[in-house]
């Protein structure tokens, strides 16, 4: 890959680096001004480690003893994006690229997309919250959308392993920080938007602005032949998206007039049957996953597949085989005769959606048993949504256990106190219980459950750790 950067130094560049902890000889170091640190403060360390080229915004900070090449950029972050793509040979140009953004549903949509493309003989790599993977190759991840160097490296690995496509979760942070600016997207999917990450974005308008960049900017300037926007017609924010005339625009959902129009045939704890009218025909689907939100996720994936000219029948076959996604309303077998589900819902809107579905199924099934919810709120994140989450849990459940969910550097008890502001007076000890120890909180809910009860363990989904 270093040959692509031959013009940057007198000798081949061994690696790209923007993290001072990963400096090595013959690297090209890009100094980025971040929220917590400034890469310009580590230029001397880069020179001492043997860097052969530097990219900076402030030339005055380059060490006087540095003898290598120096390039001054208006934006080091933008330069890193471009250099990363060039360094690894622009692998995205040779794959069908699907970007999925939204508050909820990104992971499930990418997994459904992967299943359909595999059924079509077009194996796809996946980059997202749970992990990065291509077929049997799996890499752990710490963030939804990785930094530009790691991202382009992963795309290159996918390409070398034979991937024909990539399904990518695109976070608002990644869009705001321009981590995926060098990806020529074929398809962009917008799932939904609700309150989240307001510790980073100032308000919902800024949050939406970051998300919409995938459509208004990246998809618009894509070099792919037929860029397509696949948009949830049932989401208020999604329908506000502006797309250029060159972008094919498909909507999906229950709303009348949607290009991919859904009709629910039946649903239960075992799955959902639905029919779908599309621009290329109509078909009935069996989805082995519960919840109307998963029907919406399936429609997003189907839209992406149709944009790649994959037959509708292939979509039907692939989704019928898919058993589910880890930690996404995942059913947990047990010997108590209770219905236990683990879900990643960590916003008030996601909780409302999941609880609405579970309550709806209870009513349609004639069940009079209780719905017990375990949830917590993340530390060092948007504090304003804590009481909103408690309110959603209390309104949608018979019993609620408030516990910890990645408290990080905050006091777990204070996080619970913040959430309690959304619970009705007098509920503690009656319909609401609290325990900052998540293991004990889950055990409390299971012990209170009786045969036929439904227990939702929300918040962490696939995560098997506590931060």
How is the main sheet built? Answer: 11 strands, mixed
End-to-end gap: 36 Å
Average pLDDT: 93
Q: Tell me the name of the CATH homologous superfamily of the largest domain.
A: Mur-like, catalytic domain
Structural class: alpha/beta
Q: Report the CATH topology name of the largest domain.
A: UDP-N-acetylmuramoyl-L-alanine:D-glutamate ligase
Commentary on this structure:
- The protein has 12 helices and 21 strands.
- By secondary structure, the chain is an alpha/beta fold.
- It folds into 3 domains: 2-86, MurE/MurF, N-terminal domain (Udp-n-acetylmuramoylalanyl-d-glutamate--2,6- Diaminopimelate Ligase, Chain: A, domain 1, 3-Layer(aba) Sandwich), CATH 3.40.1390; 91-321, Mur-like, catalytic domain (UDP-N-acetylmuramoyl-L-alanine:D-glutamate ligase, 3-Layer(aba) Sandwich), CATH 3.40.1190.10; 330-458, Mur ligase, C-terminal domain (Protein-Tyrosine Phosphatase, Chain A, Alpha-Beta Complex), CATH 3.90.190.
- The chain has an 11-stranded mixed sheet, sandwiched between helices.
- β6 and β7 form a beta hairpin.
- α3 (106-119) crosses α7 (292-307), α3 (106-119) packs across α8 and α9 (348-364) runs parallel beside α10 (385-396).
- The longest helix has 17 residues, at 348-364.
- The radius of gyration is 24 Å and the shape is globular.
- The two termini are 36 Å apart.
- The mean pLDDT is 93.
